[in-house]
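Sequence dictates fold. Below is an illustrative record:

_____
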Amino acid sequence: MTDRRNQIDQESRTWGMIAHLSSFVGYVIPVANIVGPLVIWLLKKDEMPFVEYQAKEALNFQISILIYLFVSIVLIVFLVGIPLLFAVLLFDLIFTIVAASKANEGIRYRYPLTLRLIK
């Protein structure tokens, strides 16, 4: 069995990892969690297929997280939104770290509970 990691060069793995980690800028600058992966996807999509996949996956996940956050904010009126808001943020944090780690290993990671809006 061939190791898939050997097929992905280090530069692609690094850019794939950065595509995921760039979403953390959104914790400081609103909506930057979408802009980071979007910029990497637009810059690298034609030259690095692995990075294109990872950045697109990160972008779709962050758009999904943004939608889940808006739903949580609306549900605060019913008090269920407060714990849901924290759950969404924790979900974002954990799975972004997992995805970045997998990308650095050269593994094509696919986020759970993600709306695939960008094809």
